[in-house]
Structures are given as C-alpha cells and as structure tokens.
Amino acid sequence: MNIGFVVHDFDTREGHGRYAVELVRRLAKEHEVTVYAKSQAAPLPEGARFRTVPAVARPAQATILSFPVAFAAVRTRHDVVHVQGWSAPSADVATAHIVMAAWRSAVRNAGVAPGLGERLLGGVVESREAQFYRQRVKAIIAPSHRIRDDLATHYGRHDGISVIPHGFPPAQAVDAAEARYRFQLPEDGVVALYAGDARKGLDVVLKAVAQAPAVRLLVVSRSELEPYQALAQHLGVAERVWWVNGLEDLTPAYAASDVLLHPTIYDAFGLVVAEAMAHGVVPILSRAAGVSEFVTDRESGWMVRPRHPEDSAAALQAFAKDAALRERMARAAHAAAARRTWDDVARETLAVYEDVRRS
C-alpha cells in the first residue's frame, strides 16, 4: 500500500509527532510511506520518504490555517492519505487529536486565558475544522470515546468513526537515584511530576502541592512559566518546585517521580499519562483525559476533578503517608499499560485503511 502520512511536525516532543513517529516506524516495514510535514526532528525509518510542507511556522494558529493549502501544493498520489487533524483540504483518514470546539469550550469553562493567536484566529480554525470533519474526510480515528462523542456533539459527525486509543510504550530502565541527581532533587521523599501544557492544570497542581507539604514537584514544560513561578512564590511552595524548560525525552523525569499530576481540563488521550504508567508512575488524573478509560480509580490511578486542587491534594497526602499504597498502585499502573502497544495501534489503523480502500 502507498500511504501519505501528514503531520505538522515529525517530532517526538509533541503528542501528534510522537503518534506519527510510532505509526510510521511500523507502517514503513511493509508499506510505502511518504511523510509530509513542515519539519523533521525524528529520523525516518528505512524505506520512508519525506516531503517538506511549506506552511507558515508561527504562530500555531497560522500554521494550522496555512498547512492544508501548503500540503495540497506538494502532495502526490497515494492509495490512502492519513492526516493528523485538519491538515489537508480533504483526506481518506484523519486522526482527531483535538476537537477545537471542545477544547475552546473547556478553556472558557476553566477560566483559562487563551493566547493571542487563539483569540484572533481560534474561531476561524474551529469553523474550518468543523467543515473538514463533517464533509471532507471519509474515515476518522478517535483516540478515545470522549473524542468520538465530541465529534458528534460539536460537529454533528456520527458515522465513519473508529475508536483506536494510542499505544503505551515499553518502559526504559533508568536508575531513580541517578535521575533525581540529574534534576538535583532530594534522594528521599515523594516527588510528583507535572509535564506538558501548563494551561491544562499547572495552577491547580501548585495549589494542591501547597496543601501537601511532604511532596516535591518537578515541572517539565515548554509553556511560558513565569506566571506559574510567581504563583508558586505566592503560595509559599517555590522551594519545593523544580522547573525544567522541556526535555527531548521524559524518561528521566518519570524515573525521578513517584506520581504524575494530570488534572487536565482537556486531552484527547494524554500520552504523558500513558508513558508515566508504563514506567510505573501512578497517575493522578481527571476524566477529561481520554486515557482515563484505561485507568481504574484507586487501583491503577487516582481520579480527580480538573479544577479542584483539594482533590489532587488528598491524593498526594495519601501517597505521602503510605508507601505501600504507592507501590501497589504503581504495579497496577504498569500492568494496565502493558495491555496495549503501538503494534496494536498500527494493526487497527491498517484495518481502517483497508476499509477506506474498499468503500
């Protein structure tokens, strides 16, 4: 099969990019794959080809708006074109990594201030995305049932949707003591990790940590962190927070941590949760993350409400007091993660391709 695989950036540092890299590695073993992206930071597997999409690089909303036209200018013929979100005028298959209308609603409900680009262009992107999902893609892959439901609720798309959750990676062996030394964290005590977009709940996490004095917090994010650092100072927790401005590979952060704090306001899936579980890190997460469908509350993770720091604080306090609880839930999280791999995702995705070709 000749596959065109379209993604903004072929780069493992972002969720869409990690999804693309994992799938292309597997698809290219038996099929012809051409990756279309505006940038490439991850190596292509043997046999795959790369074509640069000359989309606007910044800001993010301008990239989203310019990418479909730029892709149309360089695309060639394929048996199946698989795009990530609205990144082409039309496509055979699209993976819905976000439903923009649902995300914008979650931001408004949480009282989170959108960025300038989203304020200026978010409505236009939402309108174009809605039209794409309603009329211009044959089959949609939803990473979770919540995304399937969001597509129906916000865009009126009910048919041609396959729920194919993302994969859980194999854990990498990293010494916890060495990882803590790398980040200059104390050797003992409970360390909680927050990783990813700060808008999804870092303020709530800081307020929760303020109520759990035995817990240290490691923050790994490429977001603008100054407002959150000021909040940490205001809450009196600055000396218990370690800040890291992004990592190429989060493995050392997982190794250094006991729990992951992810009280997100919105996530189509939540790869950071999947990766943490695979490394035996207990997730404290909200039902707003699609990956929560794989978590059993108080067994393989701890469910909290997104904008309620007291919920996350209660979980942190319980883990700080009870090492046996942490260890038991860490084993359960790791076992839950082992039940689904990226090989499963590739196999189920190929089945969608075959259905599209027969239709």
List keywords for this structure.
alpha/beta, Rossmann fold, 6-stranded parallel β-sheet
In short, what is this structure?
By secondary structure, the protein is an alpha/beta fold. Helix content is 43%, strand content 18%.
Secondary structure blueprint with pairings:
Layout: E1 2-6, E2 9-10, H1 15-27, E3 32-37, E4 39-40, E5 49-52, H2 60-74, E6 80-84, E7 91-95, H3 100-110, H4 116-135, E8 137-142, H5 145-155, E9 161-163, H6 176-182, E10 190-195, H7 202-210, E11 215-220, H8 226-235, E12 241-244, H9 251-256, E13 259-262, H10 271-278, E14 282-286, E15 302-304, H11 309-321, H12 323-337, H13 342-358
Parallel strand pairs: 1-3, 1-6, 2-4, 3-5, 6-7, 7-8, 8-9, 10-11, 10-13, 11-12, 13-14, 14-15
Helix pairs in contact: 1-13, 2-4, 7-8, 7-11, 10-12
Task: Give the overall form.
Answer: globular
Q: How many alpha or pi helices?
A: 13
Could you state the oligomeric state of the chains shown? single chain
State the major sheet. Answer: 7 strands, parallel
Terminal CA distance = 16 Å
Classification by helices and strands: alpha/beta
In CATH, the homologous superfamily of the largest domain goes by the name Glycogen Phosphorylase B
C-alpha Rg, in Å? 20 Å
CATH topology (level 3) name of the largest domain:
Rossmann fold
Return the CATH architecture of the largest domain: 3-Layer(aba) Sandwich
Unreliable spans are none
Mean pLDDT: 95
Q: How would you spell out the order of helices and strands?
A: EEHEEEHEEHHEHEHEHEHEHEHEEHHH
Kindly provide the name of the CATH class of the largest domain. Answer: Alpha Beta
Helical content (DSSP H or I, runs of 4+): 40-55%
The fraction of residues in strands falls at: 15-25%
The strand order across the widest sheet is 5-3-1-6-7-8-9
Number of domains: 2
